[in-house]
User: Fold this.
Amino acid sequence: MGSQTLPRIVITAGDPAGIGPDIVADALDRDYAAAIAVLGDPGVIADRARQIGKAVTVSECDRGEFLPHRPGNIRVTPVSVSSPVSAGRLDPANAAAVIATIDTATDLCLAGDADAMVTAPVHKAVINDAGIAFRGHTEWIAERVGNALPVMMLAGPKLRVCLATTHLPLSAVPGAINAELLSRILEIMDRDIGRLYGIGRPRIGVLGLNPHAGEGGYLGREEIEIITPTLESLRSEGMCLTGPLPADTAFTPGVLDELDAVLAMYHDQGLPVIKHQGFGDVVNVTLGLPLIRTSVDHGTALELAGTGEASADSMVAAIELAIAFARNAAPANQAGQ
Assistant:
């Protein structure tokens, strides 16, 4: 955090037609021990705040200018939209502004001018409709920082779940699971969960790919041929790994009590469990990057934009977790790790 006594948090406002401006206005009407700046269109955020009945003050600030946050005072570095915004109505003309907020937040973190970034939801399809090849925040940021291997983690108050594969068809998952990928992901989890949460040696549970973790080879051989040898090799290097675990019993209290995080092999093996446990309190964290990035656990919810019905709980949780991470990881951030 350099000479700053407060973590510097930069927040992207997301797609202006979605609930991003709503939840930013709502979340920043609260107190945080941080210096916070938002990237977005000040007029859109102010208009949306009025629509949802939030009596906040929106003022402009320069890029990289952070002052201690005061509830109800939203400081915005302008990234102007190109087309008038109507809540709930997507417009490809504004996609470039959305991307610019992500790029600027990333650059501020890489330069050491911000300690963490928090992202509001964007709409992938409308960005692609604008001619921008965009698969999601995670992949876009990873490419911008130099093709890092990003690891998606959803973190709740009692459970943390990472994914070995993310947005793949189920038929493509077995072919994507290999020893090199698992080793790199587990090394990232061991390093980043330990650093961000202040855990000396994270206890990581690794799920099997197949039902009953392969049932000794009768229900699949990935556990025998890939997962188990990889875990044994990493254990010999000092990692605290449990598994491969059958996914249908891994999320029971007796097992989770002994773990700090779980690695699922594919998207719908792990995420439904944590979202059922605490949707709205869960935060999307990207591990494996040379910066701290947290995000909400939901999408743009166009039907809720401007109605005042969108919950800011996940945004609040994402901001609070980014602040905690920035404090825990300050020495590593200063070293550019």
